[in-house]
Amino acid sequence: MHQHALRLRTVTKRFGLGDASVTALDHLDLEIAPGTLTAVMGQSGSGKSTLLHLAAGLDAPTSGDVVIGGTSVVGLDDDALTALRRREVGVVFQSFNLVPSLTALENVQLPALLAGHEPEHDRIRTLLDDLGIAGLAARRPHELSGGQQQRFAIARALAHRPAIVLADEPTGALDSATSLEVQEILVAQAAAGQAIVVVTHDPAVAARAERVVLLRDGRIDDDLPATDAATIAQRMLRRVDAMDPIPAAGPRITGPAAAIGSAGDRAIDGGSR
Ligand SMILES: Nc1ncnc2c1ncn2[C@@H]1O[C@H](COP(=O)(O)OP(=O)(O)OP(=O)(O)O)[C@@H](O)[C@H]1O
């Protein structure tokens, strides 16, 4: 096993050219160890999705390097990058929906098959049981609710034991009881050796992580060890307050709470992009 499941080394990502360019990530350094659950938080536009896409090898940095499971993505051709991604990365992204023509179970088996392995049937059965979706395995995605599809997407990301699992609001479409079950599974998989990085706006989800990385303007603004939900929420509020040009009197609940709430709603409405 590599010392780092994932390393971003002085990564800058710019979109567009010249005056119109946007710097989504700005000389960002991040190392993710195997067997850890890391939450990434930050305001809309702070660079969270960009970070996940680069970490998944789906997009290349403008400068710097991304090292996935010990292999640098810089200089890899498309075939090599695809092979690396299939072997080492599992994703739960809104943009990576289940394949509609396959059953839900076949979707979960797909990453192993694409990587040229026999799926681990026992492991998949256990994951589906734990996620409460074993009875739905023969259905096609359009016969499942959004939350059920989300749970199959989580099973798909974990099934082939990739070195790193990247999830964008994995609990966003789930009711609170199911969200808790998914959190338990992520914690358990991290304890079993996978590196899991979860982008979330939910302090309760972030509180399950052993590390909370706060992004701001494409940089790491804070890097906290395991922290309780109230402290994380406060930390986020303070960031919002710091950016708020209008000082408000009295306790600051409305603005920051609204910021967290609207972000969560957007995730439920169909993701960040
Ligand atoms: N394909 C793109 N083309 C141009 N600009 C982009 C592109 N993708 C992201 N950006 C810009 O890069 C910055 C970071 O975006 P990113 O989507 O990573 O933020 P985020 O923290 O995930 O936001 P959200 O919480 O709203 O999803 C934003 O200013 C965004 O407008």
UniProtKB/TrEMBL annotation:
Q: Which domain of life is it from?
A: Bacteria
Entry GO terms, CC: membrane protein complex; plasma membrane
Q: Name the SMART domains on file.
A: AAA (SM00382)
Q: Record the organism.
A: Agrococcus jenensis
Record keyword Hydrolase present: no
Q: Where is the ABC transporter domain?
A: 6-242
Gene3D superfamilies for the chain: P-loop containing nucleotide triphosphate hydrolases
- Print the organism lineage: Bacteria, Bacillati, Actinomycetota, Actinomycetes, Micrococcales
What are the protein's UniProt keywords?
Answer: ATP-binding, Nucleotide-binding, Transport
Any one Gene Ontology molecular-function term assigned to this protein's record: ATP hydrolysis activity
What's the protein name? Putative ABC transport system ATP-binding protein
Task: List every stretch annotated Disordered.
Answer: 253-273
